[in-house]
Amino acid sequence: MTEGIHQPTMTKHTPPNAPSEIKTDAEQQNAASQAMDQEIAAMALEKCFEELEQIVTALENQTTSLEDSINLFERGMKLSRRCNTELTRMERRIQIIVENSRKEVQLRDFEEE
Predict the structure, then answer these.
(1) Domain ranges for the chain
(2) How confident is the model at residue 69, as a pLDDT?
(3) Share above pLDDT 70 across residues of the chain, in percent, rounded to a whole number
(4) Which of 1, 85, 90, 105 has its CA 20 to 30 A from that of 7?
(5) What region does 10 belong to: left with phi over 0, alpha with psi -120 to 50, or beta?
(6) CA of residue 54 relative to chain centroid, distance
(7) Average pLDDT score over the chain
(8) Whose CA is closest to 109, among 99, 94, 98, 87?
(9) How far is the CA of 104 from the CAs of 93, 110, 111, in angstroms?
């Protein structure tokens, strides 16, 4: 369940003349978070819901370590935000067909009703 989640590693203090490609824990966590954001943004909405459901089940079963639970919770929150954003976007696209007084079909945005 947690195999796709980056586990931060501890790095030692970087000497002043060390190569700049060595990342601090915060930089590694930020990079992992951004990668997760990109991965989730590319997922189909149905896949987001499926994974979110799996995460909820795993957290409810309490069979994961504290660190894994925190990572799952973080991913679940990102998935939840994505699902909510997409559902809101889709809701805005829904149109209701309304007949006006001349019996002509008229389209109105869902939120107008």
Answers:
(1) 25-112
(2) 94
(3) 64
(4) 85
(5) beta
(6) 14
(7) 77
(8) 94
(9) 21, 18, 20
- The amino acid that residue 34 corresponds to is Q
Tell me the C-alpha distance between 106 and 49, whole Å: 34
For residues 48 and 83, the answer to whether their CB atoms sit within 8 Å is yes
The confidence score (pLDDT) of residue 9 equals 44
Q: From CA 62, how far away is CA 89, in angstroms rounded?
A: 34
Nearest-10 crossing angle of helices 25-42, 66-93: 40
Vertex 23 angle, CA 19 and 26, to 5°: 155
| pLDDT tens track for 73-109 | 999 999 999 999 999 888 777 655 554 555 666 666 6
Per-residue pLDDT band for 1 (boundaries 50, 70, 90) equals: very low
| Placement of tokens 């869902």 in the chain | 110
From 68, 80, 64, select the one nearest 6 (Cα to Cα): 68
Count CB-CB contacts under 10 A for residue 96: 12
